[in-house]
Amino acid sequence: MLDALGRDYQWVEVDIMSGGSRTPAFLGLNSAGQVPTLVLDDGRALAQSNAILLHLAEGTDWIPVDAYQRARMLEWLFWEQYSHEPYVAVARFQRVYAGKSADEIEPRLMERGHLALARMEAALATSAWLAGGEAATLADLALVAYTRVADEGGFDLARYPNVRSWIGRVETAFGIG
């Protein structure tokens, strides 16, 4: 989001595998000990990726003005945290960072990840963007993050052509590459 807005920032890598998010300094910023955490210019910290996105995009075209379209965007943001990230991102984490083989991943995790991707596939069959409007929203940005690397978790995106096309549109809209 900061890149899309052309804002300067400093990226600080936190190694969660070695306890980097459990240090007293980090816990002082984010008592949940989770990444990401955004530290604002005035020193205040904000956690949770979608809260950070909403804060950064306040007053921009990435948040629809129309109340219904904004609610649709929020619907997808909430769904991302409950029905997508816990499966697609977790499978990727287990494969990439925990070094598990495909056989070691819980089948239910993969099943739920495929259900999430199938829901996105169906939504994108009738609209270019998840919230259904004329332009990309924060819902698209939030969901593209783990979707575009879902193959690293063992999800074959060839099964989801609408999702694959959408990934390209989102990357173009937000300048991701």
Report on the structure:
The protein has 177 residues and is mainly alpha-helical. It is built from seven helices and two strands, in the order H-H-E-E-H-H-H-H-H. It has helices at 2-5, 24-29, 49-57, 67-96, 107-123, 138-147, 161-174; strands spanning 37-39, 45-47. It has a two-stranded antiparallel sheet with strand order 1-2. A hairpin with a 5-residue loop joins strand 1 and strand 2 (45-47). The longest helix has 30 residues, at 67-96. The radius of gyration is 17 Å and the shape is globular. The relative contact order is 0.13. The model has no long low-confidence stretch (mean pLDDT 95).
What attributes does this structure have?
177 residues; two-stranded antiparallel ribbon; mainly alpha; single chain
Specify the helix fraction band.
40-55%
Assembly type: single chain
SS field, number of helical segments? 7
Number of distinct beta strands: 2
Strand content: under 5%
Task: Give, in order, the helices and strands.
Answer: HHEEHHHHH
Average pLDDT: 95
Low-confidence stretches: none
The description of the largest β-sheet is: 2 strands, antiparallel
Briefly note the structural class of the backbone.
mainly alpha
Radius of gyration from the alpha-carbon trace, in angstroms: 17 Å
Output the strand order for the largest sheet: 1-2
Overall spatial form:
globular
User: What gap, in angstroms, lies between the N and C termini?
Assistant: 13 Å
